[in-house]
Amino acid sequence: MLQTYVRPSRELRNNYAEISRLVRENNHVIITNQGRGESVLISMEEYARYEEYLHARYVEQMLAEAEQQAKDPDTQWIGHEDLWKCLREKYEL
Predict the structure, then answer these.
(1) 3-state DSSP: the chain helix, strand, coil percent, rounded to 5?
(2) Domain ranges of the chain
(3) 3 by DSSP, 3-state: which?
(4) CATH no. for 4-41
């Protein structure tokens, strides 16, 4: 079961093996510095899932914005060939 542990920053140096074990077991470890939360350690697998989640949210947001622009009657459209010409010039393709 996922748990969250709180450890002072000095434990990273003094007890890294224990903190690493907690993270490998898919626990979260909050690192504090002078009693204040400073960072969170998570496993690489969880970080990858988080990155995928953020990417999906970004794509959803961009698609929603594009849909709004497409609905706007003031949106100016360009043709397929003009689009590719613009992209080739911009990215030197």
Answers:
(1) 60, 20, 25
(2) 4-41, 44-72
(3) coil
(4) 3.40.1620.10
Q: Which of 15, 6, 55 is nearest to 33 (CA)?
A: 6
Query: CA triplet 26, 30, 32: central angle to 5 degrees?
Result: 160
Provide φ and ψ at 72, rounded to 5°.
Answer: -70, 120
pLDDT in tens, the chain (93 residues): 689 999 999 999 999 999 999 999 989 999 999 999 999 999 999 999 999 999 999 999 999 999 999 999 998 889 999 999 999 999 987
- pTM for this entry: 0.65
